[in-house]
Amino acid sequence: MSTDDVRRAFRLSRDVRPSRYELRFALDLDAWTSEGEARIDVRLARPARTITLHAVELEIDRAAAGAVGAVGASVRYDELAQTATLSFDRELEAGEHVLALGWRGPISERLRGLYRSTRPGERYATTQFEMNDARRAFPCFDEPEFKATFALELVHAAGLAAIANAPVASTEPVADGRVRTRFAETARISTYLVAFMVGPFEATAPATTATGWPVRVWAPPGLAEKGLYARDAHARALEWLEAYTGIPYPYAKVDAIGLPDFEAGAMENPGAITYRTTYLAADPSTATISTLKVVFSVAAHELTHMWWGDLVTMRWWNDLWLNESFASFVGEKCTDALNPEWGYLRDFVAQSERAFGLDALATTHPISTEAATAEEAAERFDSISYIKGQAVLRMIENYIGAEAFRKGVQIYLARHREGNATADDFWRAVDEASGRAVTAIANSWIHEKGFPLVTCAVREEPGALAVTFRQERFFADPELAAGDQRWTIPLVIAVGTAHDTREVRALLDGGETTVRLDGAEWYFPNGGGAGFYRYLLDDASVQRLARGMRHLSAIERLTLANDQWALTMARKAGVRAYLRFADALRGETDRYVLGAIAGALGWIWANALDETVRPRFERLVERVFRPRLDALGWDLRAAESSDDREDRTTTLGMLGRIARAADVRAEARRRIDAHLGGAAVLAPDALAAIVGVAASDGDAALWERYDARRRAQEATDAQDEARFRYALCEFGDAVLAERTARLIFSDDIRAQDRGLMLQRLLAAPETRATGWAVLRDRWDAFVPGMEPGIKQNLMAALALLTSVELSREAIALLREKTTPDMREMASQTIERLLLASATAEKVRGELAEALDAIGA
Question: Sign of the C-alpha dihedral, residues 685, 691, 692, 693?
Fold first, then answer.
């Protein structure tokens, strides 16, 4: 490591441990400044003349130890290590001491530490400390292992609400029209979980859980009234999680706070969970089903963290995946259990495709990786840490049984509550609960990067089928050799007999194993869709599976659709086979299976379609999706299922945007004109598709109406504002596309939204080149200063530049401009671009013959 790398990787001494902080902040939202004082109780394991703690962008002007002024100290800063070293006038004895500190610092423009947020006429100060940004707000021991209690006091302008982890203990006026808000002392938490905010927030009335906990949603003025669904989602999820964990909620309240500016989607600060406003301000009468799902799912995820992450905290950031994977997995279990009408496990499987896509790259990383610094770990906030991790947990639970898994969770939480633990501690608890060597299974998935392709070959035996399963690593790049990498794969095989279907479990812990399936007429190698592996069936297996296709669950059909497309993208199968598969699903009614088909056909449209075959490809899309629109109609029907509502969104988008059906496009424009003119109010799920279809060939006048709508709705309807903001990216006209691209980099668009808008702009073939040109010209001015999460969204957008010319330009720019904090993301994006460009060329060359083969 270089000298700079060593300093970045600096870790604090374990000889000094804090136990309690008293913090006072005087916040000036006019000048955007903060003045602070702290008293930190620490214990020294041995005598010391110096104490080093974290501080960055702070000016510490008072430092002492013991009684007030008893032992003075000078301060020396290390900017790269982000530390301040206190050198005392004399040596401090081993034992208990109190550090007294005073400092001044900014309320930052960046979305980290103690930062500012605004709306017209409104100012907010708020915090975001994960992963290592508490040190930007106050001097502290800013590593997860240094848990302590926090007693907080805020001095701020009167008339503003003050919110923090703990309930308000008292409020009193002070000089100059300000007030002092004191909060109750917190339980023991890590510094990255400390949170406070001040601003003109409004709150819902509280809901109280069956176990007595108060739950509220806070939001900017005009939006709190739309937070009742989110409030009740938090209350319901909290009750379920108390029962699941067997531990009462560990904190004193649940406040969910919507912030105008926020880098992440949400943050699990105990008692004061912060969110983007769109994740809270969602009225069921105007929000889509997909939005309500996200609201509930994110709330359940963050509340799961109250136990997993907050009550029991990782020792260091290399186990970040455990926090996020578990919160994702159990949060989704909670969402599914409390909303059975959604069939939410299908969402779970659909999400896994993002992890499969990243993990098929040579530049992927294991779920658990070493992180010398928090900055290194920040690059791990990706679909491997969240989604692959949750998929592996589901696969293991599916293998050992839900009750054994839950018992392991309860052992782990009870054993380490209010402390720190590692992934190994968790697996030992699951071993104990299940009586199985789960650790041996888990470690091959946690510490190995990538995932297996399981090839399946069947032969008949008297009264049975014998299936030989072989494994090798799956690469998106067909040029890469699979090598000898091996996983311990818990296979769950769905077996169909003459009388019933059942599941057979087996371990594939070497290169090959053969399983005898007594009485089997057909089999499916990923029963329940819970395995994190792809599979490739021989011809005999495919023929037998055709007999049992109607017996497969929707989840199993979904994994089948996803695997077929993955094999096509990896150039292990031709596009003809996939189009035949898609065409055969014309009678499919499950929204998720149709959604998978829509995603694949949409990729072909965006990346591999030339004008010579466009009419025939549009006919194929028409014949796959028109029957569904005929069955659903345009208008919401009484007692319509949530699947039908979401299906209408997908179907209208495919017919209007991809198939370019003239009647759908004309009706979309008629309906959006009536909606914007006030003559009709469109149901939210249909509106979600109609705004995009109408925009695709919309004119400047419609662009202006969309832009006016999103501006008007910012203060009153976060969902509608987002809907029309994103729809600006759907205008296909080159002049309007450039106008949208320039808007993205203006002050009219919040920094948090830029990457997501660019993803939409660069996704469509009509707007891709225009959006790229504007992004390229503004790279130096905007990209280096973006927060990590926003950069991840930007990289996802760049990966869409699949044409030979644009991908070459993007790769050259990334190689020239990549900074250390985005090195891994840039490498992955370059690999994605090279692979997608090659696949697009191959599919383009095969498409005419493939369409001929299915009569399109």
Answer: positive
Please report the DSSP string for 415-438 in residue order.
Answer: HHTTSEE-HHHHHHHHHHHHTS-H
Residue-level length of the chain? 856
User: Which residues neighbour 120 within 8 Å (Cβ) at sequence distance 6 or greater?
Assistant: 715
Residue 537 has pLDDT above 60, yes or no: yes
Q: Is the bond leading into 131 cis (omega within 30 degrees of zero)?
A: yes
- Among candidate residues 302, 324, 379, 787, the one labeled active-site is 302
Q: Which two tokens stand for residue 254?
A: 């649940």
Residue 67 has pLDDT above 70, yes or no: no
Give yes or no for residue 1 having a pLDDT over 60: no
Determine which helix (DSSP H) or strand (DSSP E) holds 293, and give its type and residue range: helix 289-305
Q: Which amino acid is at 231?
A: R
Tokens 């186990």, residue located: 319
Listed in sequence order, the residues at least 6 apart from 3 whose beta carbon sits closer than 8 Å to its beta carbon are none
Question: Residue 2 pLDDT > 90, yes or no?
Answer: no
Between CA 36 and CA 65 the distance in angstroms is 17
CA dihedral 692, 694, 700, 704 (to 10 degrees): -60
Q: What is the mean pLDDT of the chain?
A: 93
Question: What is the pairing mode between strands 168-173 and 266-267?
Answer: unpaired
Tokens of 82: 């982000």
pLDDT band at 8 (very low <50, low <70, confident <90, very high): low
The answer to whether residue 59 is catalytic is: no
Cβ atoms of 271 and 137 within 8 Å: the answer is no
The alpha carbon of 691 is separated from its chain's Cα centroid by a whole number of angstroms, namely 25
Terminal Cα-to-Cα distance of the chain (whole angstroms): 59
For the chain, percent of residues with pLDDT exceeding 70: 98
Amino acid of residue 714: E
Cα angle at 696 between 851 and 598, to 5 degrees? Answer: 40
Residue 5 clears pLDDT 80, i.e. is over it = no
Q: Retrieve residue 812's tokens.
A: 């050259």
Backbone angles phi, psi at 45, to 5 degrees: -75, -25
Q: What tokens were used for 301?
A: 């995820």
> If phi over 0 gives left and psi between -120 and 50 gives alpha, with beta otherwise, what is residue 95?
left
* DSSP conformation class of 463: T
Q: Tell me the C-alpha distance between 482 and 474, whole Å.
A: 7
Tokens representing 139 are: 């001097």
pLDDT in tens, 571-599: 988 999 999 988 888 878 899 999 999 99
Q: From residue 38, how far is each of 431, 451, 676 by CA, in Å?
A: 44, 49, 54
d(Cα 350, Cα 564) in Å, to the nearest integer? 14
Percent of the chain with pLDDT over 90: 84
Q: Residue 383's pLDDT is what?
A: 86
One-letter amino acid at 14 equals R
The tokens of 277 are what? 């406003």
pLDDT band at 368 (very low <50, low <70, confident <90, very high): confident
* DSSP category for residue 830: H
User: What secondary structure does DSSP assign to 63-92, as a single string?
Assistant: EEESSTTSEEEEEEEETTTTEEEEEEEEEE
- Residue 271: name the closest of 382, 358, 149 by CA: 149
Backbone angles phi, psi at 537, to 5 degrees: -95, 140
207-210-215 Cα angle (round to 5)? 25
Rg from Cα positions in the chain: 28
